[in-house]
Every structure is written in C-alpha cells, then in structure tokens.
C-alpha cells in the first residue's frame, strides 16, 4: 500500500496551484479549450483534492459521476435551455476533474498503471456514449427530419476512431522509444495550432450543449464540430500511418 502524500507544512492551496503550474505536461498539439481553460481549471481542482487528501482514483470516480449525470440528462431529459445549462455544467466539471486526476497524481509523486487504466476506461465510456445520448435526445424532437439523426451516429464513429488512434499512437511511440514533440521541452507550443484543432476538443463539445434550447441551432453547431473532427481525422490518419511505419523495428 502506498503511503499518503500530504501537502507541505503551511502550504496553501494557492501555493499548490503555483507548484502545479510549473510541472505541466507539454502543450504541443493540445486543443485551445483543453490547453487554456481545462488544464488551469483542473489545476485548481487538483490542488483542492490534494489538500482534502483525495486520491487520483477518487477524483476519476467523481469525474465519471458528473460526466455520466450530464450524459443521462442529455439522453433522457426534455430538451430546453435549463437542460442545456445543466448538461453543460456537468460535462464541463467532469472534464475539469478528468484533468485534475492526472495533475493530482503528479503532486503525489506519480500515477499507477491501474489509475491510468481507470482513466482511459472512463474516457472511452464517455466518448462512445455522449453521441448516442445526442441521438436519443434529438430523436424526441418531432420537427426534426429523421435523416439528421445520422449526424450523431457518424460523430460517434469519428470520435471513437480519433480517441483510439491517439491512444495507439502514444503506446507505439513509447514502445519504440520515440519522444513526441509534446514531450520535448525545447519545442514551443503553437497557439495557432491549438486554435485550428479546436473542433476536435471535447471541451468545445461540452460547451455546445448550452444551445439545446434551440435544437436547430444546436444541431448546426454540433454538425460543424462533427465535420471539423472528421476532416481532422481524415487528414491525420495518413500522417499517423506514415509515422508508425517509420518507427524503428
């Protein structure tokens, strides 16, 4: 059993946040919301959890509860402005806690394989289910043409491929001893690239649900994210394949 790691004597939450800010993982390639909003918010939550004596796995579990609540509301509650606000709040908090668990692990001296496994399982569940919840929610809008229900189904496929390929890329690079640009401290993160890949950002998707009170407007914004993500994945798959082919045997 790993001994509990406690804050240094007299260290405030603000001081812990500053300490975390100096030990962030690379921002290269990170979309804008995740980089500029979610990580700083997760940093504060990680510091609060650290001072409360929570473990990273406990924070992952709390993140899963908030995310599951948002997805359940999206699938089952009547679509409207109140539902949209509640779904967005739940998903944004769940996503921030998803960032906090890894940052808390760094505060406590490093994560565990079981913790990393749990984090990825929770991420897989939300990526696969959130678009199915959109499908269920939109299916109750009588004025909506049935053909539009293909949008969340297609988005689900694209999101799962994107998530799975990203994990596989990281695993193969690590297995073959290749450092990514994000891992190299001499690489300056590109703000422009973070903005260009914003449509692929789960955090941006969370914010779009605030438009549920106007289903047609929501569907337009959601559809643009689907197209943007699909375009990114189509362009990236060829590059990723060539990169994997160039890895040392």
Task: From the structure above, extract its key features.
249 residues; mainly alpha; Four Helix Bundle (Hemerythrin (Met), subunit A); 0% strand; CDP-OH_P_trans; transmembrane; Phosphatidylglycerophosphate synthase; transferase
- Total strand segments: 0
Strand content: under 5%
Supply the CATH class.
Mainly Alpha
CATH superfamily descriptor = CDP-alcohol phosphotransferase transmembrane (TM) domain
Assembly state: single chain
Q: Major sheet, described briefly?
A: none
Count of the separate structural domains:
1
Please state the CA-atom Rg, rounded to the nearest Å. 19 Å
Sum up the overall morphology in one term: globular
- Given as residue ranges, the uncertain stretches (5+ residues, pLDDT < 50) are none
On the 0 to 100 scale, the average pLDDT is 89
InterPro entries: CDP-OH_P_trans (IPR000462), CDP-OH_PTrfase_TM_dom (IPR043130), CDP_ALCOHOL_P_TRANSF_CS (IPR048254)
Keywords: Membrane, Transferase, Transmembrane, Transmembrane helix
Pfam family, one: CDP-OH_P_transf
GO molecular function, one term: phosphotransferase activity, for other substituted phosphate groups
Would you mind describing this structure in some detail?
It contains 9 helices and no strands. With 249 residues, the protein is mainly α. It has a single domain, classed as CDP-alcohol phosphotransferase transmembrane (TM) domain (Four Helix Bundle (Hemerythrin (Met), subunit A)). The chain is 70% helix and 0% strand.
């Amino acid at each position: 059993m790993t001994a509990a790691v406690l804050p240094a004597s007299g260290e405030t939450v603000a001081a812990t946040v500053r300490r975390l800010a100096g030990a962030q993982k690379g921002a290269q390639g990170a979309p804008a919301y995740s980089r500029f909003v979610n990580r700083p918010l997760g940093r504060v939550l990680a510091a609060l959890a650290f001072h409360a004596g929570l473990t990273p796995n406990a924070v992952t579990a709390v993140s899963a509860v908030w995310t599951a609540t948002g997805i359940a509301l999206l699938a089952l509650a009547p679509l409207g402005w109140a539902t949209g606000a509640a779904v967005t709040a739940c998903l944004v908090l769940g996503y921030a806690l998803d960032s906090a668990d890894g940052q808390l692990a760094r505060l406590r001296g490093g994560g565990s394989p079981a913790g990393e496994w749990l984090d990825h399982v929770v991420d897989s569940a939300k990526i696969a289910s959130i678009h199915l919840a959109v499908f269920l929610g939109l299916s109750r809008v009588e004025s909506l043409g049935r053909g539009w229900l293909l949008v969340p189904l297609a988005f689900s496929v694209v999101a799962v491929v994107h998530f799975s390929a990203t994990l596989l890329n990281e695993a193969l690079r690590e297995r073959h001893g290749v450092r990514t640009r994000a891992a190299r401290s001499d690489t300056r993160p590109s703000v422009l690239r973070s903005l260009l890949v914003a449509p692929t950002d789960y955090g941006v998707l969370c914010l779009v649900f605030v438009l549920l009170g106007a289903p047609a407007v929501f569907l337009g914004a959601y559809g643009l994210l689907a197209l943007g993500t699909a375009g990114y994945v189509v362009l990236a798959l060829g590059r990723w394949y060539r990169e994997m082919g160039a890895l040392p045997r």
